[in-house]
Amino acid sequence: MSEVLLEGREIVKVFPGVRALDGVGLRLEAGAVHALLGENGAGKSTLIKVLTGVHPPDGGQLLWRGEAVRFRSPLEAARTGIGVVHQERNLVPGFSVAENICLQAPPSRRGMIDRAAMSAPALRCLAEIGVDLDPQTPVGQLSVAQKQLVEIAKALFTESRVLLLDEPTASLSPQETERLFEVIRRLAARGTCVVFVSHKLEEVFAVCDTVTVLRDGQSVLDSAPLAQYTHDDVVNLMVGRAHTTAGLAPRTCDTASPPALALSGVSTAAGHRDISLDVRVGEIVGLYGLVGAGRSELAKAILGLDRIEAGEIRVHGTPVRINSPRQALHKHGIGYVTENRKEEGVFLEQPIVRNITVTVWRKLARALGYVPAKEERATAADLVARLGIRISGLQQLAGELSGGNQQKVSLAKWLAADTRLLIVDEPTVGVDIRTKRAFHELLWELAGKGLAILLISSDLGEMVTLADRVVVMGNYRRLGETDNDHDYEEMSGRIIRLIHGRPEEAVAPAERNPA
Q1: pTM score, two decimals?
Q2: Of these four, 102, 317, 340, 489, which has the most CB atoms within 10 Å of its CB?
Q3: Strand 4-15's sheet: what is its strand order?
Q4: Nearest CA-CA partner of 455 in 336, 356, 302
Q5: What CATH number labels 258-333+421-503?
Q6: Tell me: domain 4-239, CATH 3.40.50.10900, correct?
């Protein structure tokens, strides 16, 4: 049996009105990759904060290598040997990559911080995860995926004995994810315990040895060998009942009318060249590609956030030139559910009612711009009910909701405005299995009612589940397109062949010329 590095016994944490942790236990052993699983709201994030000194436990006991401990701050936990990479980025945008990586223990010379000496350890940590970044680049200039990788390098710099990774692959491509798994395996081989928090069970089974499952603030499985459980066993433990994965209802799209959105030979100031694609009424078209392929950037150019330098955009057959998201919404009926819900999707410090109705204030307004509170509440309440958003009341702050419910609020505001085309960017990053399934059903239902949807996702399973067609991008170019027969093995093979430059092998079997 390996050494137990960190152990939690009967951990309790109480917040006003809620018992977030109720007797949780876990045991983290040296050299193990330990999965911490549970739906949103199960208590995973709270447990991580207790283990890392953000919150003191209200009951129970923490032991570090057999000795009782009580961390008074995250810095104290870090100095003990516990590192964490949170799901939400925790970097200083104005600092360089090297400064962020070395932030907890910067090299010094004669009592002064030696910034020049930061590059070497930063490059070493980046090299461990196979990332080629200039250590002097300001973090604020990086993409979401690059920031996530810098967070991981930052944790490697502290040489933690226990490293907690909260949804570390949320913004990574399959290739980057596998590279991260290699790093995790190397860390485990040298005696580090890596705690892996993820909603992607295929990743959990690929890399983890042991598992703890939380449900409603309690441990329903405590530090057990993962090999003893199947995928379905784990899902059932998480949701408390058998979980159905029945197929979605059949759906057709309108092929007779002009596409809701059509791009022809579009080039942008961001670097896209000759991009053509279309999305029809009632159709879900997927945009897939490795991180850095230019998918989100293309969406933002469509919305007027970047300059279109060549080509043409048509909305329902009419050529348009969109200059702003406001114009995209109010003139052309285009909504955008962003991947960065906390910074761009919702107003965290504003109530739910205001978040949902912000897109229709102009429609609801009376004389002198007055928006009747009664109509606001009615509009918001209808969408809360339709989308199954779990809230305590319409005046609850959006920042108090789980990630899945925040994403539903972000979607609700566009539905309130009667959008006809919805661009959905990484819709289920960081949400649990049941919420993810509900979100898939919701998007499928919306398409069935005539909404055109352009879906950007790095989750290949999600893409195969939802898309009618998949357009593959790489390096700001269109690499090809394939119809989706919803067969994961077949589709994943076609898509990967397109990414790696073998388009002749990526067409559907029925489309191949036997000659």
Answers
A1: 0.58
A2: 102
A3: 18-29, 4-15, 59-64, 67-69
A4: 336
A5: 3.40.50.300
A6: no
- Rounded CA-CA distance 324/313 in Å is 14
Q: Residue 473 — very low, low, confident or very high, per pLDDT cuts 50/70/90?
A: very high
Residue 95's Cβ-side half-sphere holds a number of Cα atoms within 13 Å equal to: 17
CA distance 292 to 308: 19
Give the pLDDT score at 430.
66
Sign of the CA dihedral 463, 467, 471, 476?
A: negative
CA angle 52, 145, 184 (to 5 degrees): 55
Phi (first) and psi of residue 27, to 5 degrees: -135, 120
CA distance 377 to 319: 37
Q: Say yes or no to pLDDT of 136 above 60.
A: yes
**Could you tell me if 268 and 308 are in contact, meaning their C-beta atoms sit under 8 angstroms apart?**
yes
Mean pLDDT of 86-114: 83
Could you read off the pLDDT of 403-431 as tens digits, one per residue? 777 878 888 888 887 789 999 998 887 66
Q: H/E element holding 489?
A: helix 488-499
The share of the chain scoring above pLDDT 90, in percent, equals 42
**Which positions ≥6 away from 202 have C-beta within 8 Å?**
231, 461
